[in-house]
Amino acid sequence: MTIERNLFIPSRRQLLKTMSSGFGYLAFSGLAAKAAATERRQQEDSGQISKNPLAPKAPHFPAKAKRVIFLCMRGGPSHMDTFDYKPQLMADSGKRGKYRGSLLGSPWKFKQCGEGGLQISELFPHLASQADELCLLRGMHTDQPIHPRAMTQLHTGNPQFVRPSLGAWTLYGLGTGNDSLPGFISLNTPSGSGQNIGSAFLPAIYQGTTIGRSGRGGNRFGGSRNSQVVPDIKNANLSKRQQRKQLDFIQELNREKLERDQHQPGVEGIIESYELAFRMQDSMPELMDLGDETKDTLDLYGIGDDATNNFGRQCLLARRFAEAGVRFIEVSNGGWDHHSNLQTALPNSCQQIDKPIAGLLADLKRRGMLEETLVVWSGEFGRTPDNQSGNGRDHNNKGFTSWMAGGGVKGGFSYGATDEYGYEAVEGKCHIHDWHATILHLLGLDHERLTYRYAGRDFRLTDVHGNILREIIA
Amino acid sequence: MIAQELTAQMSESEGVEFFESNIRPVLVRECYGCHSNQTGQAKGGLKLDTKQSMLLGGDSGPSLVPGDLEESTLWSAINYEDYAMPPNKALPSNVIEDFRIWIESGAPDPRTGDSKLAIRGTVTDEDIKRGKKEFWAFQHPRKSEPPRSARSDWASKPVDQFVLAKLEENHLLPAEDADPHTLLRRLCFDLTGLPPNPEQVSWFLEKWESDPDNAVSHVVDRLLESPRFGERWGRHWLDLARFAESSGKELNSTFPHAWRYRDYVIDSVNEDKPYDHFIREQIAGDLLPTKRDREWTEHLVATGFLAIGPKTLTEQNPRQFRADLIDEQIDVATRVILGISVACARCHDHKFDPIPQSDYYAMAGIFGNTDTYYGTLDIRQNRRSSDLLLMPVSQNLSFNKSLETDDLEKLTDELARVSQEYRELGRLRREARQSKEPSANFQKTQRAFAQAGNRMAGLKAVVDSYEPDGTPKSFCMGVQSNDKPADANLLVRGEVDQPAQKVPRGFVQVIGGKKPKIRSNSSGRLELARWMTDESNPLTARVMVNRIWQHLMGSGLVETTENFGSTGLPPTHPALLDYLAVQFMENDWSIKSMIREIANSRAYRMSSQFNAVAYESDPDNKLLWRASPRRLEAEAIRDAMLDISGKLVLQRPEGSDVARGGSSVVRNGQLANTADLLGQLKSSISMGEQGKASRRRPGMANRRTRNRFSNRDKGPSTDPRAFYRSVYLPVVRDSSPRSLSVFDFAEATMVVGRRETSNTPDQGLYFLNNPMVMELSREFAKQLMEFSDDSMEQVQRAFLIAYGRPATTSELQAAEIFLDDLNVKGSNRQKKMETLTYLCQSIMAAAEFRIVN
Question: Taking CA B269 as the corner, what is the angle to CA B266 and CA B273, rounded to the nearest 5 degrees?
Fold first, then answer.
């Protein structure tokens, strides 16, 4: 018996009825956190209780990871200069490459880090100190060498059609631990990438909520008061009670419309998002306000230093959201598309994220959260060992490196490999589908059973693919 | 002087001799060691031992541009400007002088080095032939007889017969007609982006009662005549044309003249310019024959289509910049007009469609013969600014008044002074660098040099925008063909430093149609435009009717509206698509006629009523068993709020806020032109009345513009400019106004054929708490207070205005409870007003306001 059948298909109409009787399933204040998730699922499965689409659900099987922090590097970071040590490439630098052009050995030194002895580039001095938490996946590959499509595949598995994103699937599979915050938050999302955090055919409530649009000029997290990052978060005129009355009226109108239209996912989504918005007015400013963090913590993330301030804030916010029970948090950093400015721009990119990420890992660890938080780092693809335009590298979808930390993966561990130069994955290959299957597995979700019926067939994140990288599980 | 004479007089053989005796020995002695094939060294990607590799240059662009010292890196390098070459010791000044003569005389160079590379693709002629023959989209559309059905009483237009046939094939029935309230609202939003007013509603109800067909057709005609139509449908085109008023990317310099293209599009749509002509103007307006200056001007503005794309102005390498510019033009033109992506053949043969890499370079040749004029502020970080086109017919703008000649003179003098200072600082900087002693002085000089450059750029932008008598010039963005048309080299993996064989200019082979011959002295762009819009082209008409269908029916017959290739989706109703495409061409490519055809159909008129059985078999409504409910676009939501609160200003604003701000750069959502520049300018011209007028010249941003710019919705505003239709809001890349971005405004760096429709708590927060929403709610309430003293009549009126229908009994009850319970403070009158304001806000916030059924 699959979950989604019980959750949605036969009961969609019932669900709406439940809702129209006083928002029973939406108001669920406190209920969510208190309920024993396993019990709930059993009850749901046997149809005993009404279904709140965001209530915590038990995973398919016990697992360490309870949530995900996805550090998304936009542009395609070079693996040969960061986490994929290629001595042969360095030795043969300048020689003719495989597809014309000459080989470009990494101009940066690598060194063995931590007890596990992972080879990490000197561009990550801080992250190197967390090497024993990292599980490098050096055999990554994906289907597309074009940014938008590869980015979409990284998020949804499918570069061609509109499909739910990894975050939406996760939220659908596990619900969320805080009913006053979105269960899937994306910080610093570039505009135009809605599909990458979208819910597609899954109910709208599972789509990602963006906080702080990314803009080239804007340093959207750089300000002293993060609460301003969420616009219109405060009501200047009404008391809470008055506002609740107003919202009740709005929802009454919405509910009537829904009854008239019978089936209208758009209206359902609006009803759900209003309730969440209402609660976010209190929860969000509190969470976004870093005033209660110690100087020590701020320093740990590099907050206050020009180079690391922006990304550091995002990482710290990610930890705060994780703490508050948000299920899936995506943090993103752009500018990794180094076609012609590798020597100058790559060190800058690395510097922006190095201390913040190291800080995040250290902070999660000291709070005892790393065990149950899966931290994932990846770009949409890697780059070529060949030199492009003298000081850069081109897109490479055939081989690259991503890494995971915490959440039940082996630390100080490396899995998979590219060929001697870094052109393509040859060992322990991990396609995006495999990567997705593994992430879901670490969360206790079976990627083959996490399905949703749409247009007459069951869809899943991994389509008909996906092999779990069992070797990396601690 | 002597040198110039020498330059002019040098014949070909003298030139070669000059090279052999004065240049080559220096290159061999001083440069080959690090930059040649012979030594195998190519530091900085640069080789200097063939003519071609010298022209190509290295990482920082071409080392040599014959005849142009400024652009030749070789020249600045031997002068120790950007580089210091040779590194150990600068060349003697007489040798440097030789190089100047040589470069200025066109850099004659007998060393051969044409590329011997010939890249053969994997797409064969056979593949292309097969694609042409077998793939649906590459075959010419044919108009077939609309299928007949037993339920002939339902179908009223050929469109309906096609739709009905598909439904019957799948054992489904079309939904009933929508009720007249719903239908009128749908029509008004679809055609003009605004809701119907109560008078229109009652008129329509009456007409509908007696003759529904006639009622609909009358409304459709009236809406198509309204100037609001062009503002709505013009915006659809602007989405595709990635319209924006700034360059985007790192520097994000404004395009103060881009609004002319915006207005051109809106006007063209309103006058129902035949679509084929509309396309020809945008692709090759500068080359179209014309006798009248006014028409010529319009044609030039139209070519702004090719100029308004995002640009990396910080790009060092001009060759790379140009290749990227051409790429963007090819990408936009092919996807928007042909519904096919050719740009992925830049680096290799198309992976999925039979489009070889050579097809891309055939088109790159065409666009390579084109110079693009987009302006931008010529500050130091901007390495790729360009000129603008001077319009044959100038246009008076109230915000761009004439300048007294005295003031212009002062500005010109100031510019001369600053330019002199800039040159002087440049010399000092060079000396400081050559001295090799890193000093604090150098840093200081460097800074002063940069500042002088910025000031000079601002002043130059101002001075250049006036005739000598102080009359402002009118500029537009656009393109021009250059004088010496040539073919382009295919680039191996799309890399500018890896040219292979030349590819004759031409079009995409697999797309058939009548292909005009490109003469050797012609750029090929006009021919391209003709091929694209010839009736024999299988794609152009299909792609456009499919879009019209999408905007009226919610989804295209081909759902991937900009991808008709093999990775796109096939049409759900192929015969209908073809029928419409042919009809479109037969009706002289009239967009309005096509809209009339569809909007008058029964299929368009269907209700959106849910049907469980049909849903089970076709959840996406691909077969059209009902009308698809749709979330309105950001502009329609904002305009509707302005409209129902009586604040909408229908008049078109002059220019745009970006035009008023002038040439500038955008930082953090603000026109952040250097404040010191403004200060400098202020003090450099005489104050007083004239001074005031000149403060809004290009190059300067005044404080008011700066604040209003992206924060339109931040607070109550008394400025009528905040209440123009949304299509006239400034569109600055990476910084769209909140009221638009919150509802998925089109990303202005991309071709957007279909907007996203997200559903987020952020939208909830916007309606609950945004100050502009609050302000408009209050205005809405004021109107209701004027309409009646009775609160229930006010509520009825509010529903009618906002939703185009009367309130239901239960809605009235809910409203009554809300009004009684909200309990705000104040006098009776105040209380009533306040409470009504929150009721109005709620009505705008509710789902129905943003959804069209």
Answer: 130
Chain B nearest-CA distance from A403, in A, is 29
Name residue, tokens 């068993």: B625
Residue B571, both tokens: 């049409």
On whether the CB atoms of residues B508 and B340 are closer than 8 A, the answer is yes
The 10s digit of each residue's pLDDT in A197-248 is 988 888 878 889 888 754 433 345 544 444 456 889 999 889 999 999 999 9
Q: Which helix (H) or strand (E) holds B480?
A: strand B478-481
Residue for token pair 């909520």: A209
Helix or strand run (H / E) with residue A405 = strand A400-405
**A276 touches B: beta carbon within 8 Å:** yes
Considering only CB atoms, B734 lies closest to which of A101, A217, A243, namely A217
Rounded to whole angstroms, how far apart are CA atoms A417 and A426? 6
- Chain B positions touching A206 (Cβ under 8 A) are none
Distance CA B277, CA B533 (A): 8
- pLDDT tens digit string along B89-111? 888 888 888 898 888 888 888 87
Model confidence over A377-391: pLDDT tens digits?
999 999 999 987 678
- Cα angle A312, A316, A322; round to 5: 145
Q: Structure pTM?
A: 0.80
- The contacts found for B93-102 with CB under 8 angstroms, 24 or more apart, are B95/B22, B95/B26, B97/B3, B98/B18, B98/B22, B98/B23, B98/B26, B99/B23, B99/B26, B99/B74, B99/B75, B100/B3, B100/B69, B100/B75, B101/B3, B101/B6, B101/B7, B101/B18, B102/B18, B102/B19, B102/B22, B102/B23
Q: Is B31 exposed, middle or buried (0-12, 13-18, 19+ CB in 10 A)?
A: buried
Please judge whether A207 and B498 are an interchain contact, meaning their C-beta atoms are less than 8 angstroms apart.
no
Residue B766, φ and ψ in degrees, nearest 5: -60, -50
Backbone angles phi, psi at B519, to 5 degrees: -75, 160
Q: How far is B814 from chain A (nearest CA, A)?
A: 7
Chain B residues in contact with A261 by the CB 8 A cut-off are: 608, 610, 629, 853
- Nearest chain B CA: its distance from A209 CA (Å): 6
Which residue among A215, A266, A277 places its CB closest to the CB of B735? A215
